[in-house]
Write a structure and sequence with these properties.
This is Beta-glucuronidase. Residues 30-200 form the Glycosyl hydrolases family 2 sugar binding domain. Residues 1-18 form the signal peptide. By secondary structure, the chain is α+β, with helices and mostly antiparallel strands. It folds into 3 domains: 30-200, Galactose-binding domain-like (Jelly Rolls, Sandwich), CATH 2.60.120; 204-317, Sandwich (Immunoglobulin-like); 332-535 and 562-590, TIM Barrel (Alpha-Beta Barrel), CATH 3.20.20.80. Helices cover 17% and strands 30% of the residues. The chain has an 8-stranded parallel β-sheet, covered by helices on one side. It is globular, with a radius of gyration of 25 Å. Bound molecules: (2S,3S,4S,5R)-3,4,5-trihydroxy-6-oxo-oxane-2-carboxylic acid. (2S,3S,4S,5R)-3,4,5-trihydroxy-6-oxo-oxane-2-carboxylic acid (GCB) binds next to loops.
Amino acid sequence: MLWSYFLLLTTLNISLHALLYPAESETRQVKSLDGLWHFRLDEQGVGENERWFAQPNLPDPTIFMPVPSSYNDVTQNITIHRHIGWVWYAKDFFLHNTAPRWVLRFQAAHYESRVWVNGHSAVNHSGGHLPFEADITPFISTNKDYSKVHIVVAINNTLTPTTLPPGYLQIHSPSYRELQTPFDFFNYAGIDRSVILYSTSTAYIQDITIDTQRIDYDAQHIATSAVLVYTVTIAGVNPINTIRVLIELLDANGMVVANNTDSHSSLVVTKPNLWEPCGMNYTHPCTEHSYLYTLQVTLYNDSPQMNILDIYRIRHVGIRTIRLTDSKFLVNERPFYFHGANAHEDSDIRGKGFDHVILAKHFNLYGWLHGNSFRTSHYPYADEFYEMADRFGIAIIDETPAVGLSATQFVSQATLDHHKQVTTEMINRDRNHPSVLMWSLANEPESNVPSAKDYFSALANFTRPIAAGRPITYVISAGYNSDQGIQFFDMICINRYFGWYSQSGRLDQIPNLVSEELTNWRHRFPNKPILMSEYGADTVVGLHNDPSFMFTEEYQKDFYTAYHSIFDNFSSLIHPDTGFFVGELPWNMFDFATDQSITRVGGLNRKGLFTRQRQPKAAAFVIKSRYEHLESINTNDLCNSFE
Ligand code: GCB
């Protein structure tokens, strides 16, 4: 009987961030607070002084606002669309006092959030794309069977030079305020991801980490065994030796394949089924599932009855390794080639608001396209994207919201500190997802200025020890001879727009320029694989011209084709001995909203392979047939030979 093998827990790591996704179990209840909330603007910024959080209702005028959604596009009101400053949300609900501890969790709210529960300040959070939560038990009545709960949230979307992303408020006149954003997407705001209430026991599982440490293979490259290392963090208990823990790994049929009773140890799995990214010759198609295990952690009290205190399950554990060589990105010791498309969290009416329909369509379209990867440009996405990516075997390059950094930020300790903070929060949240193959710490910083060197050196040194086995990178627009920071990172990811922003209209110039570019980067960094992390052309759906002109569907098709033959010349798949090019990610999967400007017709960046309504442009079929072809390249003979 397992109980007899139990060891008393010896270690307790209290982490600052409890970031486990709120999941139901035998010991945990989850209640969604999504729906219509009361909402109003606070154009004068007086709400906090007037103590709106302490009143039974927000002062009129209020409207109903769906949560989750960005508030900007839900009404016909341009003032709400372009509002800069505070907005307020409120909601009432009943809570039945059936658990000792209740936690209120915001999956994300953009940007600066203050939360009050029954008039008490519960939590403040800075940053738009990561969860935050508060234990609200002290603010609800525990002497009755139920509590009436009044939540008030104030949110400010004003970006500053030290927020991530940064922004610059220009006050031209009292009636003409403008938030300048050094990035190319609309600064959607509000409670744009779900709000969840969940319960735990008094002693509870606060955090779990799990990583594949190694996989052994036989001569046919069939996995014979794997070692997973894990850490379980417990909170709410004193002294710790009154608690025991059981860690079990369940296969897809629910059978226990490994277990342990230490809070920080390893699990050995014989004949493991590996998690594999989809759409490579030796793996599964992108429409089929990848193999996932479930990690089940059970907390008991150390009494003869062994009462269960808490149970938490991670249902997306994948066994896989990542390793970079000088020229290849290896997953499970086989060369992986990224062929997908970047995206934004963006859709009609919802803005950046999370929506299950958009989520499902997103992954259906990656399957249709045979796309095996995307970068979460330019911020961490909602948790649900990572869970779906785990399931379908879509690789994710997980990006922080550090887009638009310039020399101003590189000399700011406040920015560096916040950058470290969001990097930590992102890694803590996402590290258990097998789909996350790499961390991107920034998009297109002004990395050619001298101060970028110290900034990125410090950031890389900070991140490497917490990177959970993933390579680190940032995405570069600077030139191969001027970038100061990528020397401290593992991969070269470049965004290039030959034939669009430069050599506009000259598709004929693209092949030579791409070839020169890749050769020059390789020359400077012979030990780092290279990925084209963006390339694309704005395309107005339905606009045609022969010969192909900019903005037409023909141009977008020809644009992509012009890059592809050069990619193949350097491909690590096609040229296993000499190739160093490990992937291509068009910009963008979908048309997406931007600020209004003279370069963005209708306030949209139209570089999507699909429209904002998720319908294909002609280039989508070009990419689909290319990706089908890439899948057929046989890499079976290439295993185990990469040093
Ligand atoms: C880029 C940026 C991306 C823009 C894109 C464009 O290099 O990384 O955020 O949307 O160019 O279309 O201009």
